[in-house]
Specification:
Helices cover 14% and strands 42% of the residues. It is built from nine helices and 53 strands. The two termini are 46 Å apart.
């Protein structure tokens, strides 16, 4: 079967023979659970992350601090639960000891803690969703307060007995306030069979067993050891006569894993295989779901992996990797949905060549031929946006006599994850995937002048940040510092240049880009959390065929370089979103009678059915959206619905990042949504800060970084402090109000590793309408401007758009833009 990945860039070392990952479609492991998609402090505020970034992931659990907890400035469980539950979230684990301000927690005695427990439990018990919260009374008691991880048996038993006494006291206190409260524990920092045996025996005897069993897996060795930990725990349950408890590994993974699809697939596959829940650790800033949401609404490569994970349906099936339970090797998970007639395989974690062998492909489900579609979610950094994953291959193949299908993957990248979708072949021939030429170049392999190559994020230094190839080039802070990349392109044309970088300057930083020593351009890099927290800068170059030297030299501040990617641009950027892979409600039918063209088949919608597509936009603006359908469909976006004829282009306003587009119909077979464009601003209304009327102390502040040379500062913190824009709409209707803003609020608790950024809010009112409270995430510096899109309704002619915040400071505002959601021009 010729579903072969093109090699991209310099080849990684591959094994002599392809590795084989075996998927047995006849060996069910039970219903898809989606347990491993949670995060500790994954949400920071209502709106951070955005609804459009949160809802598609179908998150089953998050861990947050108690309401009003002093450990961090945001992430309060009751506050964030509103957006979590609104977007289909499962349950909230309350880290009760995060009521304390210090890390490790100050030990003021059990009586002091019980007063805090009372407050926490009463607050949760009064919430209308009380049954969706779980209390975690102690966090890492093997290290904090009780020192249970010691080897000396006498010291261990003394700490153990004190912990068990306090566990019983707190457990009973919680149940006295809320008899139906669910409780989780013991919540060790690392699995310890000795403590677990003692704890289970004690808790059963004293009738204080938790309803959810929790511990942490925070070492790179967990990729090797978790299976043994899990099996040991289940054996202890059986030995002690305890019915199986729900398990939540409520902190997992290292910094080097976060945002990296090829690393995440290793963790998620072992948790899903064992049907346990798991939440990514909180190593950096809150509100990004554990490292895979850029800003508030933009996907990175990790987000797309979890979106794929959320798309698994039916039952998971047995996957046999080349080396099970081995750190940083090819791993995977797979599902079979006989009602949708789909099999999906998610895999990654190794470079080189692999053969994915799907065994026992049921002929009753797929027939004699199948279509195999292969896509890649690459690493784009923690703060690097990732467009819709590119389809690398789409091939129709006959199922072998032994009932197997082999999908060869060639030139796999270690940091990427891959998805294979198997559907019935039907008639016709699928259109081959259009894969542009692309190549990657590591900074450490380039010619470095006055810089230093550093190693990041390895197995031995797992809490270092991820870097492409585990190395980057820093200390580019001398006048002559530069990195010369030697690149070779196959043809004259336009190329997209992506630069993976880190910015340690505390504000926008620049470098000088030149090609073959000729004309120099200034590249401006937005701020990042720190110099190893990777982001991605996208540029466009015109290059002639042949070899060139691309030079990035020091500008006005220090920037670290990791890797550059060059990709040939062929026409207008576009993406196809297959209807058979969309989220659905109702009872649509799946029709694979034809595999011709782009897409795997048709989703047949009737009255009451709904398909929701996750559509990516590189920036705010109008894009062309074309539904491929057999009959008219209704398209809903940002609160507006429009009827679309089959194949008729629509001009729709998309916000930067993810957009949830809903399609319904009385009866239509929908194949795909085709989206193209770069984000047109034609017809968009734009107003700089200087055009607003300011009151109550709000003022215009000069800034070289603001688009119009100034921004609105000191806005809010008083009912009188407002900024009012008068906008003039050519027609009445629904618009997207895009606010360009900045702020850098933080509250440093002196925590060992978390960056305690804070959000600001503003009350936004259009005309006499009720103000809407909008959340604006920290932008890493006061001079970096991000955007938030807000659906609003304008009347024809003049409209007043007013910003304020009576109780706290609103963000600084650079400018606003307004675009019609559906532009009928």
């Amino acid at each position: 079967m010729a579903a072969t990945l093109p090699t991209t860039g310099p080849a990684n070392a591959a094994e002599a023979d392809p590795q084989r990952l075996i998927v047995d479609l006849s060996a069910s492991e039970g219903p898809v659970m989606l347990g491993a998609n949670g995060a500790l402090y994954g949400l920071s505020d209502d709106g951070v992350p955005s609804d459009a970034a949160l809802e598609p992931l179908k998150v089953t659990s998050v861990s947050q601090k108690p309401e009003g907890g002093a450990q961090h400035p945001n992430g309060d469980a009751l506050t964030v639960s509103r957006s979590f539950f609104r977007n289909g979230g499962g349950e909230v684990l309350v880290m009760m000891q995060d009521i304390y301000a210090r890390w490790p927690y100050e030990d003021l005695g059990i009586d002091d803690y019980l007063l805090k427990v009372d407050e926490i439990v009463k607050g949760v018990a009064a919430d209308p969703n009380r049954d969706r919260f779980v209390h975690i009374p102690f966090n890492e008691p093997d290290q904090i307060w009780y020192q249970l991880g010691v080897s000396d048996q006498v010291r261990y038993e003394a700490g153990r007995d004190r912990f068990f006494k306090d566990w019983k006291t707190v457990y009973q206190r919680i149940r006295a306030i809320d008899p139906d409260a669910r409780i989780a524990g013991p919540n060790e920092a690392a699995y310890d069979s000795r403590l677990m045996r003692d704890f289970l025996a004690f808790a059963k005897r004293e009738e204080v067993l938790p309803q959810v069993m929790t511990w942490h897996e925070l070492d790179s060795g967990s990729l090797r050891d978790f299976q043994a930990h899990h099996d040991d725990y289940r054996a202890l349950e059986r030995e002690l006569g305890i019915p199986p408890l729900k398990i939540n590994i409520d902190e997992y993974a290292n910094r080097r894993d976060l945002s990296v699809p090829g690393q995440l697939v290793q963790w998620v596959s072992m948790f899903e295989r064992n049907k346990v829940y798991a939440n990514l650790a909180y190593w950096d800033a809150a509100g990004n779901l554990g490292g895979h949401v850029v800003r508030s609404n933009i996907p990175n490569g990790g987000w797309w992996f979890f979106r794929w994970y959320a798309g698994l349906t039916g039952e998971t099936v047995k996957v046999t990797p080349p080396r099970p339970d081995t750190i940083d090797t090819l791993q995977g998970l797979a599902s079979l949905d006989t009602s949708r007639r789909q099999a999906q395989v998610l895999l990654g974690g190794a470079a080189g060549d692999s053969d994915v062998v799907l065994e026992n492909v049921p002929r009753s489900v797929f027939g004699r031929t199948v279509t195999a579609t292969v896509a890649e979610a690459a690493w784009s950094g923690y703060e690097g946006r990732h467009a819709t994953p590119r389809v690398l291959a789409r091939t129709k193949v006959k199922v072998a006599d032994d009932g197997s299908v082999t999908v060869p993957l060639r030139g796999m990248q270690k940091m990427s994850a891959y998805r294979i979708v198997l559907t019935p072949g039907g008639s016709g021939t699928p259109s081959p995937a259009a894969v542009p030429w692309s190549a990657s170049y590591e900074a450490e392999d380039a010619a470095v002048t006055d810089g230093e190559v550093r190693t990041q994020g390895t197995v031995d230094h797992a809490n270092g940040y991820a870097a492409s190839g585990t190395k980057d080039v820093g200390s580019l802070n001398s006048a002559g510092s530069k990195v010369d990349f030697t690149v070779t392109v196959p043809a004259d044309g336009t190329y997209d240049l992506a630069i993976l970088y880190g910015n340690q300057s505390g504000g926008p930083a620049t470098q000088k880009l030149s090609v073959d020593g000729a004309e120099t351009w200034t590249v401006t890099y937005p701020s990042t959390e720190n110099w190893t927290y990777r982001a991605k800068k996208d540029l466009t170059l015109r290059l002639e065929a042949g070899t060139h030297t691309l030079t990035l030299a020091k500008g006005d501040a220090e920037v670290t370089l990791d890797r550059i990617d060059l990709t040939a641009r062929d026409g207008v950027p576009s993406a196809s979103y297959e209807a058979t892979l969309a989220d659905i409600s109702g009872h649509p039918a799946y029709d694979y009678s034809s595999s011709a063209g782009v897409g795997t088949g048709d989703l047949v919608l009737r009255s009451g059915d709904k398909a929701v597509f996750d559509v990516y936009a590189p920036r705010d603006g109008h894009f062309t959206v074309v539904p491929r359908a057999t009959a008219p469909v209704e398209i809903a976006l940002h609160g507006e619905t429009v009827t679309a004829a089959p194949g008729r282009p629509l001009r729709l306003y998309l916000v930067a990042g993810n957009n949830r587009v809903t399609v319904t119909s009385q009866h239509a077979a929908v194949r795909s949504l085709e989206v193209s464009g770069s984000g047109s601003s034609s017809g968009t209304l734009s107003y700089d800060a200087a055009s607003a009327v300011l009151k109550g102390g709000a003022e215009l502040v000069d800034s070289v970084h603001a688009s119009g040379g100034s921004y609105i500062g000191r806005l809010g913190n008083s009912p009188e402090s407002t900024a009012e824009f008068t906008v003039r709409a050519a027609s009445a209707g629904r618009y997207l109000l895009v606010v360009h803003y900045a702020h850098n609020d933080r509250r440093d608790n002196g925590h060992a590793y978390n960056t305690d950024i804070m959000s600001r809010t503003a009350d936004v009112a259009v005309g006499n309408a009720e103000p809407a409270k909008v959340t604006f995430k920290n932008t890493w510096s006061s001079d970096d401007y991000w955007t938030v899109g807000i659906p609003v309704v304008l009347r024809k002619g003049s409209n007043q758009v007013t910003f304020g915040n009576a109780a706290a400071w609103a963000p600084d505002i650079d400018r606003i833009e307004l675009g019609r959601v559906v532009d009928g021009r």
